[in-house]
Each structure stands twice: as C-alpha cells, then as structure tokens.
Amino acid sequence: MGTTIIGVINCISAIAAIFLLAKFGRKPLMIISNIGMCFCLIALAVWPKSQNSTYLIVFAIVFIIFFEIGMGSAIFMYATEIMTEFGISIALSITWILTTLVSLLTFKTLGYFNQRDLYFIFLGINLLGLLFLIFFIKETKGEPKESLKYLYSKIPYEEILTARLNATESTNPFI
C-alpha cells in the first residue's frame, strides 16, 4: 500500500513539474526544490521519534514532492539541454552508480550513526548542492536551443556563431 501511495505521489509531482518547469524555468525550480528538501530534512532530524509518527510520514512525503518537482526532473531536463549525448551517458552512469552506493551504504551506516545523524548528513549534502545551484548553474529558459551546448563554454556563443557564419561565407562559391 505504501509503495503505491509513493508511486502516485511521484507521478502527480512529475506531471506538476512539467507545468512548473515551463512557467518558472530550471534553475529557480531546482533551488526551490532544494530549499524545500532542506526544510523537510531538518524537520525529520529534529522531530522526536517518540512523538506522533504521522508528522514524520508527512515530512517524508513533502520531501518526495519537493524532490520530484525540481531535483528529480528539472536536473535531467537541464542536463539534456547543456550536454552532448556522450556527456549525458557519462553523467547518467555516474548518477546511477552514486544512487546505488547511497542505497547500499545508508542501511549499513545506521550501525554507526543514528537516523537523526543521517538526516543531518543528507542535509549537509543538500546545502552543498544548493550552494552549487546558486553560484554555478545558469538558467536555460528562453535561451536559443543552439546556444545551450555552449552555455559553459569560455567563448561566448555569439563569437562561435559569427565564426561559423564567416567560415560558411568564405567557402561559398556563389557569394
């Protein structure tokens, strides 16, 4: 029953992400998503386990919603916009390797850390990700599709485009 509920929440959140990405863009949605996940991790870490566990379930579900509307969907759209196919394959391979490692190691680390400590560790990782988003990620909404592959290039796209046009004109025998 719980898996079905989480699946439905994931599906609804992913559908909502489609509309939110079109309206707000990738970077703002990833930042909002990350901030929401941070608040949920704080709530999960500081909420006493002895108290009503319904709140823990609610915070976990809200965490999943925040993840799915931003970091779970926007990051993949962003990657396909700014990377080549080879870069995407490398990035996705690394993503799944790290996801597998986190899944395998989280349960084992519960022997060394308590659940609260793990939430704080994940919060620290989330905060580092938030800083990375704020300072290093560039917005792609509204950018011409052709220029996105050069978004992080040291040479501005306008110079690349001008160089291509000049090369085409000089080799065209009909000009």
Automatic annotation (TrEMBL):
Concerning InterPro entries, the annotation shows: MFS_dom, MFS_sugar_transport-like, MFS_trans_sf, Myo-inositol_Transporter
A family per Pfam? Sugar_tr
Provide the membrane topology annotation.
Multi-pass membrane protein
- Which SUPFAM superfamilies does UniProt cross-reference here? MFS general substrate transporter
* Recorded GO CC terms: membrane
Instruction: Name the residues that span the membrane.
Output: 6-22, 29-48, 54-79, 86-106, 118-137
Q: Name one GO molecular function term.
A: transmembrane transporter activity
User: Taking every annotated instance into account, which residue ranges of this chain make up the domain Major facilitator superfamily (MFS) profile?
Assistant: 1-141
> Does the UniProt entry include the keyword Transport?
yes
Q: Which Gene3D superfamilies match?
A: MFS general substrate transporter like domains
Question: Major place of localization?
Answer: membrane
Q: At the top level of its lineage, which domain of life is listed?
A: Eukaryota
Q: Keywords in UniProt for this one?
A: Membrane, Transmembrane, Transmembrane helix, Transport
| Localisation | Membrane
PANTHER family found in the cross-reference section: PROTON MYO-INOSITOL COTRANSPORTER
Annotated protein name in UniProt: Major facilitator superfamily (MFS) profile domain-containing protein
Give the organism, scientific name: Euplotes crassus
Q: What is the lineage of its organism?
A: Eukaryota, Sar, Alveolata, Ciliophora, Intramacronucleata
